[in-house]
Specification:
Layout: E1 4-11, E2 15-17, H1 30-41, E3 43-49, H2 50-57, H3 60-63, H4 71-82, E4 84-88, E5 100-103, H5 107-116, E6 121-125, H6 128-136, E7 142-148, E8 156-157, E9 168-175, E10 181-187
Parallel strand pairs: 1-6, 1-7, 3-4, 3-6, 4-5
Antiparallel strand pairs: 2-8, 7-10, 9-10
Length: about 190
C-alpha cells in the first residue's frame, strides 16, 4: 500500500501559517532543500489543496527553465512536471487540467482508494486544509516536520481535526545550521 507522506514547515508553537496566511517566517536554504529531494524521489503523486496547487502551478512548471535556476528549482520543477497531481477542491470541480485529478465529495474514500493503487508514495507539501482533512480520517502515514525556531502565537495550526490518539515513532531528527530541526515520524 502507498503511504501518504507529509512535508511541512511549522513553527515551534505549531502553526503552519500566520493569521493572514503569512509564511515569511519559513527558513529554507540549500542544506534544507536536500531533504525534500529525497522525499520526491520516492513519490509519484503530489496531493494539494486548491490554494497550494495554484501557488505551486504558478511557479514550478517553468522554474527549471529560468536563467540561473538553482539545483533545487531544476530538480523540484522536473519532479513537479512529471508526477500526477491530486487536488482536493470543490471550486475546481469539473475542470479538465492535464495530469491533475480533482477530488471532492467523499474525500476519505477517494484517498483510501488512491493509497491502494500501485505506485510510489503520495507527497503532501503544504496544504494545511488537506492535512486537516486527512488527519480527521487518520490517513497520514509519515510526518516530515521542519520546525522553524519562531513563535507566531496565532495562525493556522498544523494539527486540527485529529479524532483519536495517533501514536508515532521518531525515525530521525536532523538539526540544520539555521536552527531548523527536521523531525521524521512514522505512524506506529
Amino acid at each position: 500500500m502507498r503511504k501518504i507522506v507529509l512535508l511541512m514547515h511549522v513553527t515551534l508553537d505549531g502553526f503552519v501559517a500566520g493569521p493572514n496566511g503569512e509564511m515569511d517566517w519559513i527558513h529554507v536554504d540549500e542544506e534544507i532543500f536536500e531533504y525534500p529531494g529525497k522525499l520526491t524521489a520516492n513519490a509519484d503523486t503530489a496531493l494539494y489543496g486548491r490554494v497550494t496547487y495554484q501557488m505551486m502551478d504558478g511557479y514550478w512548471p517553468t522554474a527549471a527553465d529560468e536563467p540561473g535556476a538553482s539545483k533545487h528549482d531544476i530538480e523540484h520543477g522536473t519532479w513537479y512536471n512529471e508526477v500526477e497531481k491530486v487536488v482536493l477542491s470543490n471550486t475546481l470541480q469539473g475542470q479538465n487540467i492535464s495530469n491533475v485529478k480533482i477530488i471532492n465529495g467523499d474525500v476519505a474514500a477517494q484517498i483510501k482508494e488512491l493509497k491502494q493503487q500501485n505506485g510510489k508514495n503520495i507527497l503532501i507539501i503544504g496544504s494545511p486544509s488537506v492535512v486537516h482533512s486527512l488527519l480527521e480520517y487518520d490517513l497520514v502515514d509519515d510526518f516530515w516536520l521542519f520546525v522553524n525556531p519562531v513563535l507566531l502565537g496565532q495562525g493556522t495550526p498544523l494539527f486540527k481535526n485529529v479524532q483519536a490518539i495517533t501514536k508515532l515513532k521518531l525515525v530521525a531528527n536532523i538539526t540544520f545550521e539555521s536552527g531548523v530541526i527536521c523531525l521524521h515520524y512514522e505512524k506506529k
